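User: Please predict the structure of the protein below. I'd like the answer in structure-token form so I can feed it into my own downstream comparison script.

Assistant: Understood. Taking the following sequence of 652 residues as input:
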Amino acid sequence: MAALSADVLADLERENARLSAELRALRDRQAGSAEILHTIASAPGDAARSLQHIAETSARLFGAPSVSIQLAHDGEWGEAYRFGDSARSIRSAIPLAEIRVGGRNMPGTVISENRQIHIPDLDHLDPSLADFPGLPHARAAGTRTMCGTPLRRGQKAIGVLIVYRDQLLPFTREELGLQQSFADQAVIAIENARLFNETQEALERQTASADILRVIASSPSDAQPVFEAIATTSNRLIGGVVTAVFRFVDGVTHLAAFTPTTPIADEVLSASFPRPVGEFSPLEWVRNGEAAQVADTENSPEVRDIARARGYRSLLLSPLMSKEKPIGVISVTRAKPGTFADHDVQLLKTFADQAVIAIENVRLFNETQEALERQTATADILKVIASSPTDVQPVFDVIVERAVRLCGARMGRVYRFGGDVIQMVAGHGLSVPGRDKVQQVFPRAANDDTIVGQVMLSRRPYILADIRDEPSVPALSRQMIEALGTRSQVTMPMLLAGEPIGAITVGWAEPRAYKDQQITLLQTFADQAVIAIENVRLFNDTREALERQTATADILNVIASSPSDVQPVFKAIATSANKLIGGYSTAVLRFVGDEVHVAAFTPTNPTADDALKTSFPRPLADFPAFILVRDGQTVEFTDTESEDVPPSQTRQ
């Protein structure tokens, strides 16, 4: 094999040296990135330490005597981390107060334009950068090459990494990419610290909230233990002198709970309540739903005296908001003047929300108890409906009794409406004079001369707040209400497919004695009455349909068993028709030519039966109505004594 020439060997050595240098640089950069990530991981809540390490690592890897990281928040300069003299001298010469984010300066332009700016040689500036005020100072400090790289959160720049070199050595494309990588790691450090600290604070709040929630869970019918736990926990976590929970009920401020200090101070606080809401000045501070602070109570005449008596100088208030209205407030006080930290404010807001949860929990518990009573009553009615499929009267009786009892009413009535007539079908708690008066008025047509008549016509409830204040009440209804001894009442229509079929009326001795829940309950009872009525109708319809179906089957059996003789079929038809239609007598007549023959009939008495048999056969012309029947028409006589069409023999 031929030996390589000296020139070739020299080229190989130079290439090997180049590749080795690039490999060392790559390893250094990887090691630098690893160091930064290790620093971020080892100090998750300390962004400052990580950013300072990024500045120092950047200086080492890029052979730069100086590096700076400048942050910005909401258009204003924020924290800064600097390494080396160039960065410090520039900032000394041009304070941040003299330049602005987004202005004509190196860090401001990098952030506003969200792009990397590389200046290869400060002695030969691009004309577009010549007016940057910091560049002459950087050159004076010995910088020859520099680069600014944005710190990006999402699509927005939140800071800038600036690397200064003191020699003419423009950054390579790989170095520019690495600087962007370091800038991205700086953002990771910032976000990591923010999330870590927020998690720590959230954990503290979560633990405190869990304690309060346990109290809420253990006291579903009484909010007082919750108020006391909130006062104690708030005072401990926020470092208060005293914490108090106030409630606003019917225009009055009540002291719900507080943490004690001294007997004298506690007596001063307790003696100040209850008091009208209008005299409780802190309410005005939190009426908009936001927390409020008093940094120094000596500057607030509204609370200065009680603050001196209770021994505090600063005050934090958070409202208890329900449906966008304040229903109470929590106050935390401290012995020294000063503002409260944001996390303290947030924690108190959380406790205020939990106080509202406790209040709502108690309300819902009580409403659930009432709902359970209503549900039990509903179940009782459904049992009656199920046990009385053919008769609706027992359902009406139990509905009116439950309605009166659960609504705390004096009396109740149930009306049926059919054939344009209203009649009372059930009552409970009616006095004798009242019952007599109602029975004098009903049955009655559905007109506007009674309240229930108006309800049938309008298909809407009629709510009477006080008979003494309502001159528009119909005279007949006024007489009934006065006889029954009531002043307020609710009449709820029973609607089937939107059409009225009855109503339920409940009356109270006191004016405006009804509540929304009771009106809803009456609606439920009205719906159940409709169900009962429909249930009975469907049951009877089904039974009648079954009887008709059975009769049809019986006749078909007769037809099948008598293929050569139609007479048994006629007899079976007459018998079944008479039974199912509820007839006095049924006859089957045949038209033979122009004559009418009796094919079969149900007997009544011998005389009538003989009269029928001897009347046929007869000419069809004697019976004009039968001629119509022969032609396919159905003819009905509502009263044979008044009809002119049949002949006298038909009447006989």
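That's the full token string. The chain has a mean pLDDT of 86.
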